[in-house]
């Protein structure tokens, strides 16, 4: 049967590729091109890339921050060690100077040690202040020593050693009322009051101060109180009582040059 082509017959569909010798259709390069990404997918991929870049930057920043902290911490540690060693050396020099009674030099060394502390007061700075106060007291600069003890009391207001140092400084400046407020060296304070009263010829007042001083347990002051009592009775002209008190003093504390001379004198009266 013959096949004719007519206007009513449909033409075969055009192929996007060619047919090989076996009748199979070959795809062209255009058919193998990947499909283009639509807008939402492109934006999602771009967002993921930006997120990964931010994460990498954060990791790098963290690494460099840790490295910087490590370096700064190492430098601080080295400087702190050197500063501590320098303060220790200055304090040791100050102590040596005190032992040699070179109080001016001691104060200079200890001032330098305190100056290296800045605003921080630690154990080394406390030691330096305490030795400086001792040097200032021994030098006779009671106002400066009182200032040093005041700094120590700001750190520890209940410390009896600091309180006693401050009280003795106040006693040396004649501020007996303020010295007695500390309640730590009252025997010595009353003895100093008695000594001043003896020099002023106020013998009865001096005896009252001695009795008041004996109400406190102060071994340091007890010996001086007994001695000054004997002196008062000698000045009052009661030589027999004064001799008795000096002999009692020798029995309790032993003889010394001053007491032996007083006893020799009183035996001639």
Portion of residues within helices: over 70%
How many strand segments? 2
In the CATH hierarchy, the architecture of one domain is Up-down Bundle
**Major sheet characteristics:** 2 strands, antiparallel
Average residue-wise pLDDT: 82
What is the top-level CATH class of one domain?
Mainly Alpha
Terminal-residue CA separation? 181 Å
Radius of gyration: 49 Å
Low-confidence stretches: 1-20
Give the SSE string. EEHHHHHHHHHHH
Strand numbers in spatial order across the main sheet: 1-2
- Supply the number of helical segments: 11
CATH fold-level assignment of one domain: Methane Monooxygenase Hydroxylase, Chain G, domain 1
Query: Which class best fits the helix and strand makeup?
Result: mainly alpha
Could you walk me through the main structural features you see in this protein, from its secondary elements to its overall organization?
It is a single chain. The protein has 269 residues and is mostly helical. Among the domains are: 87 residues, Methane Monooxygenase Hydroxylase, Chain G, domain 1 (Up-down Bundle); 85 residues, Serine Threonine Protein Phosphatase 5, Tetratricopeptide repeat. The protein is built from eleven helices and two strands. The chain has a two-stranded antiparallel sheet. Helix 1 runs antiparallel to helix 2 and helix 7 packs antiparallel against helix 8. It starts with 17 loop residues before the first strand and ends with a helix. The N terminus is likely disordered.
